[in-house]
Amino acid sequence: MNKRLVSLDAFRGITIAGMILVNNPGSWSNVYPPLLHAEWHGWTPTDLIFPFFLFIVGVAITLSFQKQLSSHDKKYVYLKILRRTLILFALGLFLAGFPYFNLSKIRIPGVLQRIALVYFFTSVITLNTRIKAQAWITAGLLILYWGLMKLIPVPGYGAGDLSVEGNLAAFIDNSLLHGHMWRETWDPEGLLSTIPAIATALSGVLSGHLLNSGKERMEIACWMFVIGWMAIVVGLFWGIVFPINKGLWTSSYVVFTSGAALQFLGFCYWLIDVKGWQKWSLPAVIYGMNAIIVFVLSGLLAKIMFLIKLDAADGSQISLKTWIDQQIFESWLSPVNASLAFAVVNILFWLGMMVILYKKQIFIKI
Length: 366
Fold this sequence. Notes:
Elements lengths: L5 H18 L25 H21 L4 H24 L13 H18 L2 H21 L16 H10 L16 H18 L5 H22 L12 H24 L7 H8 L1 H17 L1 E3 L5 E3 H10 L5 H25 L7
Antiparallel strand pairs: 1-2
């Protein structure tokens, strides 16, 4: 498949827009429940977004490596992998530290940091194994993580405790990264839970092989729907004994969300690449072509708006973000709808910025 897969760009763009939507409400006190993560076990639509992106990373690895290895040796590809990994991780640390860069308290794990690590290990596995081995490694990582979480005892809690405080992933993170995490005792992008996150990306790699299989496009779309539904069902059943949990990135969560991602990609693929209905997807494609840069810039702007302080009507100081939410949106909308409107306008603002880059054919690749 030499032609660029428009449906994958659209899927990536929709996913990044979803990230911006859920990360930037006008007020965290006023958010519709589906736009929040599940408190612990279970899932909401928001819990699908990050695994969708890692799944996309895996699909892209398969498609891009095929092209790169046709004209370059492995050394060249390895250097590109290392370069991209380091840049992604550095961007994650930059976002975590901005603007004060207090290294004694900086959060080391994070979204971009996880993407970097998952990309690195998934790339190395993909370069050195065939499809069957990749499938076995994916299954092995999921079973390994299940065994570690259920069988290894945590001091003070015992084995198999999946509570916020008592799970093995939190214990390891707290032991190795204490003071550098999202919460005092655990981090949703921590070390141990990166193992099943690699399996998420590998599920994308396997899906990329399906797209590269040479089958008719309609047949590929059908297989994507069938396999996607099978994974969703398996994930739900596995969740009975190993609950679906984004914070722990449980094995059942990987299977369930990978199935959902394959379904969503299959839908985009059927609409765009099979039926040829592409016009509707242009805004998503524009987002998807500069996905990482729009994520980084939107995160920086959110921090800047929080840092800038203005005087409120009662004489207190509020952030520019709060002022915009209250003065522009809450003046005519209910608090929860004002918060949503703030997030939607944020998406439209960044779409406008990305349209400028798109028209100039500027695509910033990490």
